[in-house]
Amino acid sequence: MDRTLLGVPCLSSTGGLVFRQDGNPVTSDVLHVLADQYEDLRHLRDTSCVCFSDADFASQDDPKLRSTSGFCIYSFGSLITWSSKRQTLTAKSTMEAELIAASSAADECSWVYQLLTSLGFLFPTLQLPLPGVPLLVDNLAALQTANHPRTNAASKHIALRQFSIRGYSGEHDATPCIRCLWVPTKLNIAGFLTKLLPAVDF
User: For the chain, what is the largest distance between any 2 Cα atoms, rounded to a whole number of angstroms?
Assistant: First the structure.
């Protein structure tokens, strides 16, 4: 029986958004490649939602040398949300720029996770409770900082952003809504949102 949401048949109104993702370029050309080549990313083959995050460092066209954050989130093989914007503060390193970008992406991932959980009855293939949304980052230093349970002297000035990501990742026994993972730069789709890329990469 088709349930209704605000008087509109849910399955009828969202039927055009849900489709098989086997032939989708993002799934077949990116997620399947990652799942096949990297053991830690094998679960990406069956994921219903994934986020790519990236940042450039010290943009030359900005007087304050601020970096640009970018992220894109795919659900069921479809791009559902993305962002490309200048960071509000000047990052001191590529790690800090990537961490700021990942923090913004984590905020959006948390919202998407809650949305999919609340609308889970629309998607029979979803296993509830959902696993955390994979947040893919191509900077190992930022990834290790986000996943590390402690703050050191080199990263104390950005502790608040770390704590935000760690909270989403399930620190302090909370239910994790994201999982920070590494992705090769060549396969990071969010790259084109932050910098100019060669035509072959784009």
Answer: 58
